[in-house]
Amino acid sequence: xxxxxxxxxxxxxxxxxAEYRARLTTKLNCLIAVLEVAIAKISKSMDLxxxxxxxxxxxxxxxxxxxxxxxxxxxxxxxxxxxxxxxxKTGERTNMSARDYVELSSIDEYRKFRSMxxxxxxxxxxxxxxxxxxxxxxx
Length: 139
Description:
Helix 2 packs antiparallel against helix 3 and helix 2 runs parallel beside helix 7 (129-137). 66% of the residues lie in helices and 0% in strands. The chain contains 7 helices and no strands.
């Protein structure tokens, strides 16, 4: 019973557990690495003769968007520390900084993320990181 509880903890209470946060961070780091490798492979494939550039651009764009979401999730996880509040420690929204802009691929992407709400607790509960990593590694 305890093993099952440890594998499927109840959020947001689980975010207060250092062990669970460490496992989640490891999964996010693995997913980020898989996405970065996939993006590099797509970019390399685009240089090959006869490459379907339109299709590869769409795939790369989707991978980059997913990578941005993963980075946001990781930043949120890192920022919240042991806090049970998702977003900032006070639960208040903060404006994106120049540092945030540097981590994004374009000004349009910056504007898009600046206007978005922080990732909600409910969104974290619905993510199956193992399935997402598996699907992305199949690309």
